[in-house]
């Protein structure tokens, strides 16, 4: 009896797993660095659904590094918007020295060239300038009620152009610092999603045969 019940529940579990693995991919292709930051794309941002929020992976190309620039005690490294403006928590950063502005409450975050955002994350232990830049790959979780990958599909306001993400980088190619941004991202399934979805379909077929 237990095995039969597992057979019936297996398709549902697999379908839910496939939905969780769905991801959005963003390319950093817009250059607002003073003097330029080199060749595009500057990196990739991938968001994927997890329990309680979204897992974010950001990889910079050409050895570029995350940097915090702006006025003393201010500035931002990663800026973005979220639909419906939830309060969020930054969790599990893979690099040390990262923090969230405004305690995760939406505010007004200005990024030169890209306009205003509602949320931002800061790197480098809050230390400004290219001399404090570090890290080319980052993983973290953004947690909050109702947040999914679709929550990030809100553009900045007043930008030239407006973008979904802006990231402040130090270019190892040109030695310049400044923000780079994303355009309109495609929504693509990870390879694992396709495999899981296939297993779900197999499970559904097995359950149907069992009922017959």
Q: What topology emerges from the helices and strands here?
A:
Layout: H1 2-21, E1 23-31, E2 43-50, E3 53-60, E4 65-66, E5 78-80, E6 89-91, E7 99-100, E8 109-111, E9 115-117, E10 119-122, E11 137-143, E12 165-170, E13 177-182, E14 187-188, H2 191-211
Antiparallel strand pairs: 1-2, 1-13, 1-14, 2-3, 3-11, 4-12, 5-10, 5-12, 6-11, 7-10, 8-9, 12-13
The helix content is: 10-25%
Average pLDDT confidence is 84
Largest sheet: 12 strands, antiparallel
- Report the radius of gyration as a whole number of Å: 20 Å
Tell me the strand percentage band: 25-35%
Total DSSP helices: 2
Question: What's the number of domains?
Answer: 2
Global geometry? globular
Give the beta-strand count. 14
In whole angstroms, how far apart are the ends? 16 Å
Structural class: alpha+beta
SSE order, one letter for each helix or strand: HEEEEEEEEEEEEEEH
Indicate the low-confidence ranges by residue numbers.
5-20
Structure explained in plain terms:
This protein has helices at 2-21, 191-211, and strands at residues 23-31, 43-50, 53-60, 65-66, 78-80, 89-91, 99-100, 109-111, 115-117, 119-122, 137-143, 165-170, 177-182, 187-188. It has 212 residues and is an alpha+beta fold. The chain has 2 domains: 1-22 and 189-212; 23-188, no CATH class.
């Amino acid at each position: 009896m237990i095995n039969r019940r597992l057979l019936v529940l297996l398709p549902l579990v697999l379908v839910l797993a496939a939905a969780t693995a769905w991801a959005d991919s963003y390319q950093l292709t817009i250059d607002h660095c003073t003097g330029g930051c080199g060749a595009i794309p500057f990196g990739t941002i991938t968001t994927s659904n997890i329990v309680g929020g979204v897992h974010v992976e950001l990889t910079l190309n050409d050895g570029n590094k995350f940097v915090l620039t702006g006025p003393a005690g201010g500035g931002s490294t990663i800026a973005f918007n979220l639909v419906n403006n939830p309060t969020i928590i930054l969790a599990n950063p893979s690099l040390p020295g990262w923090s969230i502005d405004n305690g995760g409450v939406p505010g007004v975050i200005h990024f030169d060239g890209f306009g205003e955002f509602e949320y931002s994350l800061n790197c480098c232990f809050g230390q400004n300038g290219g001399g404090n830049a570090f890290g080319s790959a980052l993983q973290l979780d953004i947690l909050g009620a109702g947040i999914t990958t679709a929550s990030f599909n809100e553009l900045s306001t007043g930008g030239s152009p407006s973008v979904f993400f802006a990231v402040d980088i130090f270019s190892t190619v040109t030695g310049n610092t400044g923000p780079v941004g994303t355009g309109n991202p495609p929504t693509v399934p990870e390879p694992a999603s396709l495999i899981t979805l296939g297993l779900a379909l197999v499970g559904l077929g097995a359950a149907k045969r069992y009922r017959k």
